[in-house]
């Protein structure tokens, strides 16, 4: 068995060649690259612009701590002073509060129209009658329960005072001693309870209200003057048997929807549990759903402490008598610095935008992989000796570096323009995350590339993946992540989808930077990964595992499906199987290859015998031995199976050019496809340099050159770059390489005028053709296949090309298909005429002409009156003459060679000229074309008959 690696270029040579080609390709692609890189820049700029717009909106005076122009010095000069006291409620939130004011704590009391009354859905008769609602005089109801009812009754009774105890000169303290509340809603920023400046009266809770129950008060809260009224509201305390009864009553009182009659709100409820003289154990119900007008902030807990104070005060009085009191004079907020309203857009919107930015690389990689597949460039490279290892390594490294450069630009740019998303999170975490993700993405692209054959479909699917993943992530997946009740295991399952794991990672970054920004701390640090709420750790693990799995699967599928090497799905087990059969004992595996020798084609059967003979020899000089090769395309859609090649045997030695002639559809291209490994033979096989095309295609590729029927070229690379690349693949280096490329360019007439340095996409059809031929010959391959090499060439370049091929065939075997008889005659040492999937005849051109020609063609043109004379003349020369062509005075006859002598013909024409006018005449030997037409017609007629 021949060593496939002998004489072939090393892994690193191939890698080097591919890398250089890719770099040149990239250089050509600069516009595309700029567009690619500018996409994240554009998105970042958009974010920054939006951010600036939002900031400008937030920085309006109405959103900042209020200021006024006040004559503080009393000299008529206006001084600008800012602060809490000059702000409205919206502005107040941003003011600094270094010394927060204390203010009297209030109870939350339901509005009069919602207070609890007797209704049919609450089974208690101790509630007031509904009539109080119309007068607005309904009492505020408190509910009580506990294990010891007598104790509970005592406590409840002392909670609600019976009279107002007001000292007008000390209003603040009076508010603390009495039980006061409000039915206004609280605000988010409670530097002062909104009840004091809402204009509504303060509500004083007493067990009984006298008729004139309104008093006016005025006091200062931290130098803010508060003016107002205090109204009386009756407090009603009712005992219930258990806490579940209380719960039920509270629940039924809920303001649900708008049905007014179903509302029965209770002020507060107390459960004294197992309290006794020695211990006080209480649980308090309060309503947390009071909202301000914009409906966003739940009740500030500022209205709750008073409720607690009431209960503890009552217990203290139970223990120590009515004289004792816990005075709850004021509550205060924590001091705070002045702030600005801020909204970090990059953290909010960033996740979606950045997901798109990073995913965007996927279709780019995918289409470039599929492009090489669609244009068959991958197989072309493979046929010229590029192994899968170097291809994978370099392509992978190439895409990885593009991705990394892209990400680097993205992160640097984002950081420079000040997006917190990048600046606040630890850069090393970001690096690790992006690095792992781009690797996963590249391997995914390799995997996906195996499933597409068209660049367009792959691009469409790629971009659907990009935008779909982003949108699904932002509008579906994110809600699951935020919903803490959603099972974490399912989140992990969803993260197995790479788009979501990317989204999750970016989401974690944005959350970290958002909270870091609003708390004034930092974003994500390595330490945060151990936090169970932070999903980054799982994402990283998932991505690493997926990366390894995907890259393995992608390589496997590539090997089995698309590389053209025709490996079996279990190729990696081959090492353990028996060695593939080699030339040494080929007879063993020629199962059932009965050779049908048609007796009327002695030359073909002779060739078959020669092949049989050669196969038995161990050391054959033949470069190519084709052994009964067959190809059948299975029938589709009811059509019968098509026999493209019906058992072809052929041997081509080194230094020989074998020409294959045949009408279109005869199976020539099917034959070449099998020989270069594009399709597998149905049965039979062929040996190239002793290597079997079924099993050792990889080895064959290293000593093979192909000029395919359709030019497989990179549009953006120049002719010289193509040759440099394939030359390097064929192990040419340094000056040998440059020289080979120069010579090659010159030989195919692409050297002059700098044509070799123009992009192949700009070449004319003929120039592409010549470049393809040059590629197939560079690097001295031992076997070359040329599929119609001279199609579309002008006569000058064609003869030029012929010289190239003639020179090239000195030390190699060439199989050439062509439609040009002239070409076949000039170039080929032997010819085979291939019709309907089998060879009809084989031999060198002279032999063929002698065998199938055997006649002269005699042409004569006269006026139409003398046609009969010409006919007579010919019949006289040879009674077996055959008229093959006749049109207005011009006639063509076939004269069997053994009937006529050329001298007789000349004599006869001289005689004729004296009798009538001969415009023109000619005598020609049979051409190859005549042979071809004859053989092809004969074979087809035979096939029609059979
Ligand atoms: C209930 O409380 C009262 C007043 O403290 C006390 O006298 C009585 O013993 C308590 N009853 C029970 C069953 O503990
Ligand atoms: C009212 O408050 C003032 C100031 O604290 C105090 O001097 C006065 O004695 C109080 N009056 C009553 C009746 O408690
Ligand atoms: C509540 O307790 C009272 C007095 O002990 C009793 O009459 C009434 O049936 C109880 N109600 C319920 C619903 O248990
Ligand atoms: C609590 O307050 C909200 C808002 O005012 C109200 O809709 C709801 O009915 C109240 N709930 C109870 C149990 O009173
Ligand atoms: C307070 O009451 C709750 C509910 O009955 C009970 O679980 C808890 O042990 C009590 N605490 C004390 C200190 O008695």
TrEMBL record:
<dbReference type="InterPro" id="IPR017871">
    <property type="entry name" value="ABC_transporter-like_CS"/>
</dbReference>
<feature type="transmembrane region" description="Helical">
    <location>
        <begin position="348"/>
        <end position="371"/>
    </location>
</feature>
<feature type="transmembrane region" description="Helical">
    <location>
        <begin position="431"/>
        <end position="453"/>
    </location>
</feature>
<dbReference type="InterPro" id="IPR003439">
    <property type="entry name" value="ABC_transporter-like_ATP-bd"/>
</dbReference>
<dbReference type="GO" id="GO:0016020">
    <property type="term" value="C:membrane"/>
</dbReference>
<keyword id="KW-1133">Transmembrane helix</keyword>
<dbReference type="GO" id="GO:0016887">
    <property type="term" value="F:ATP hydrolysis activity"/>
</dbReference>
<dbReference type="GO" id="GO:0005524">
    <property type="term" value="F:ATP binding"/>
</dbReference>
<keyword id="KW-0067">ATP-binding</keyword>
<dbReference type="Pfam" id="PF00005">
    <property type="entry name" value="ABC_tran"/>
</dbReference>
<comment type="similarity">
    <text>Belongs to the ABC transporter superfamily. ABCA family. CPR flippase (TC 3.A.1.211) subfamily.</text>
</comment>
<dbReference type="GO" id="GO:0005319">
    <property type="term" value="F:lipid transporter activity"/>
</dbReference>
<feature type="transmembrane region" description="Helical">
    <location>
        <begin position="391"/>
        <end position="419"/>
    </location>
</feature>
<dbReference type="InterPro" id="IPR013525">
    <property type="entry name" value="ABC2_TM"/>
</dbReference>
<feature type="transmembrane region" description="Helical">
    <location>
        <begin position="460"/>
        <end position="481"/>
    </location>
</feature>
<dbReference type="Pfam" id="PF24526">
    <property type="entry name" value="ABCA12_C"/>
</dbReference>
<feature type="transmembrane region" description="Helical">
    <location>
        <begin position="487"/>
        <end position="506"/>
    </location>
</feature>
<dbReference type="GO" id="GO:0140359">
    <property type="term" value="F:ABC-type transporter activity"/>
</dbReference>
<keyword id="KW-0547">Nucleotide-binding</keyword>
<keyword id="KW-0472">Membrane</keyword>
<feature type="transmembrane region" description="Helical">
    <location>
        <begin position="539"/>
        <end position="557"/>
    </location>
</feature>
<feature type="transmembrane region" description="Helical">
    <location>
        <begin position="36"/>
        <end position="54"/>
    </location>
</feature>
<dbReference type="Pfam" id="PF12698">
    <property type="entry name" value="ABC2_membrane_3"/>
</dbReference>
<dbReference type="InterPro" id="IPR003593">
    <property type="entry name" value="AAA+_ATPase"/>
</dbReference>
<protein>
    <recommendedName>
        <fullName>ABC transporter domain-containing protein</fullName>
    </recommendedName>
</protein>
<feature type="domain" description="ABC transporter">
    <location>
        <begin position="624"/>
        <end position="861"/>
    </location>
</feature>
<keyword id="KW-0812">Transmembrane</keyword>
<dbReference type="InterPro" id="IPR027417">
    <property type="entry name" value="P-loop_NTPase"/>
</dbReference>
<dbReference type="InterPro" id="IPR026082">
    <property type="entry name" value="ABCA"/>
</dbReference>
């Amino acid at each position: 068995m021949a060593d496939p690696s002998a004489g072939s270029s090393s892994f690193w040579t191939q890698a080097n060649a591919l890398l250089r080609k890719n770099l040149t390709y990239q250089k050509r692609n600069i516009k595309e690259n700029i567009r690619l890189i500018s996409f994240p820049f554009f998105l970042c700029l958009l974010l920054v612009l939006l951010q600036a717009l939002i900031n400008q909106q937030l920085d309006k005076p109405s959103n900042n701590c209020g200021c006024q122009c006040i004559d503080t010095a009393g000299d008529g000069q206006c001084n600008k002073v800012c602060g809490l006291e000059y702000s409205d409620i919206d502005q107040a939130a941003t003011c600094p509060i270094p010394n927060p004011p204390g203010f009297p704590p209030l109870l939350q009391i339901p509005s009069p129209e919602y207070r609890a009354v007797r209704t049919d859905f609450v089974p208690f008769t101790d509630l007031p009658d509904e009539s109080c609602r119309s007068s607005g005089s309904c009492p505020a109801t408190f509910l009580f329960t506990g294990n010891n009812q007598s104790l509970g009754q005592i406590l409840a009774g002392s909670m609600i005072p019976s009279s107002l105890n007001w000292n007008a000169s000390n209003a603040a303290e009076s508010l603390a001693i009495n039980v006061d509340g409000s039915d206004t809603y609280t605000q988010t920023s409670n530097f002062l309870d909104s009840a004091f400046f809402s204009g509504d009266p303060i509500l004083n809770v007493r067990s009984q209200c006298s008729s004139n129950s309104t008093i006016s008060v005025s006091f200062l809260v931290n130098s803010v003057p508060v003016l107002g009224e205090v109204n009386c509201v009756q407090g009603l305390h009712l005992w219930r048997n258990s806490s579940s009864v209380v719960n039920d009553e509270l629940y039924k009182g809920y303001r649900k929807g708008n049905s007014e009659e179903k509302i029965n709100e209770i002020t507060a409820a107390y459960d004294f549990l197992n309290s006794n003289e020695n211990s006080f154990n209480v649980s308090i119900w309060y309503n947390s759903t009071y909202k301000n007008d914009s409906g966003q902030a739940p009740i500030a807990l500022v209205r709750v402490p008073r409720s607690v104070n009431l209960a503890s005060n009552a217990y203290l009085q139970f223990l120590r008598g009515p004289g004792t009191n816990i005075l709850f004079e004021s509550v205060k907020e924590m001091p705070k610095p002045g702030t600005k309203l801020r909204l970090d857009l990059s953290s909010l919107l960033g996740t979606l935008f950045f997901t798109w930015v990073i995913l965007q690389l996927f279709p780019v990689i995918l289409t470039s992989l599929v492009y090489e597949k669609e244009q068959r460039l991958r197989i072309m490279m493979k046929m010229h000796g590029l192994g899968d290892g170097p291809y994978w390594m370099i392509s992978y490294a190439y895409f990885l570096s593009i991705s990394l450069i892209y990400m680097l630009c993205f992160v640097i740019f984002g950081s420079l323009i000040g997006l917190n998303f990048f600046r606040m999170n630890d850069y090393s975490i970001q690096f690790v995350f992006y690095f792992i993700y781009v690797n996963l993405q590249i391997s995914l692209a390799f995997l996906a590339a195996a499933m597409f054959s068209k660049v367009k479909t792959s691009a469409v699917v790629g971009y659907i993946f990009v935008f779909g993943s982003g949108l699904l992530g932002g509008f579906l997946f994110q809600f699951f992540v935020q919903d803490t009740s959603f099972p974490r295991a399912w989140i992990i399952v969803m993260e197995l989808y790479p788009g979501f794991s990317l989204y999750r990672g970016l989401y974690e970054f944005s959350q970290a930077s958002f909270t870091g920004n609003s708390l004034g701390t930092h974003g994500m640090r390595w330490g945060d990964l151990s936090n169970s709420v932070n999903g980054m750790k799982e994402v990283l693990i998932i991505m690493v595992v997926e990366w390894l799995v995907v890259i393995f699967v992608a390589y496997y599928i590539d090997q089995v499906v698309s590389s053209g090497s025709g490996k079996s799905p279990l190729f990696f087990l081959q090492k353990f199987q028996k060695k593939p059969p080699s030339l040494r004992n080929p007879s063993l595996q020629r199962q059932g290859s009965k050779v049908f020798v048609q007796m009327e084609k002695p030359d073909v059967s002779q060739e078959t015998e020669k092949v049989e003979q050669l196969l038995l020899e161990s050391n054959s000089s033949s470069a190519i031995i084709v052994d009964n090769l067959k190809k059948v395309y299975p029938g589709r859609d009811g059509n019968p199976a098509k026999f493209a090649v019906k058992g072809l045997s052929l041997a081509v030695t080194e230094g020989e050019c074998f020409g294959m002639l045949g009408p279109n559809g005869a199976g020539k291209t099917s034959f070449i496809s099998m020989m270069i490994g594009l399709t597998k033979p149905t049965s039979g096989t062929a040996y190239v340099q002793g290597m079997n095309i079924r099993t050792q295609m990889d080895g064959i590729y290293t000593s093979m050159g192909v000029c395919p029927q359709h030019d497989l070229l990179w549009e953006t690379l120049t002719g010289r770059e193509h040759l440099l690349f394939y030359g390097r693949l064929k192990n040419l280096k340094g000056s040998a390489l440059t020289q080979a490329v120069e010579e090659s360019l010159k030989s195919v007439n692409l050297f002059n005028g700098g044509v070799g340095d123009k992009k192949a996409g700009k070449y004319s059809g003929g120039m592409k053709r010549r470049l393809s031929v040059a590629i197939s010959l560079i690097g001295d391959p031992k076997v070359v296949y040329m599929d119609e090499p001279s199609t579309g060439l002008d006569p000058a370049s064609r003869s030029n090309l012929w010289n190239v091929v003639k020179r090239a065939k000195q030390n190699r075997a060439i199989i050439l298909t062509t439609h040009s008889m002239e070409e076949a005659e000039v170039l080929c040492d032997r010819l085979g005429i291939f019709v309907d999937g089998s060879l009809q005849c084989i031999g060198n051109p002279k032999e063929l002409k002698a065998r199938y020609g055997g006649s002269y063609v005699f042409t004569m043109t006269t006026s139409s009156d003398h046609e009969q004379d010409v006919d007579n003349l010919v019949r006289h020369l040879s009674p077996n003459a055959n008229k093959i062509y006749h049109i207005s005075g011009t006639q063509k006859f076939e004269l069997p060679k053994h009937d006529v002598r050329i001298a007789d013909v000349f004599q006869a024409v001289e005689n004729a000229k004296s009798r009538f006018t001969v415009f023109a005449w000619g005598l020609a030997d049979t051409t190859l074309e005549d042979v071809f037409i004859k053989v092809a017609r004969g074979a087809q007629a035979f096939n029609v008959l059979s």
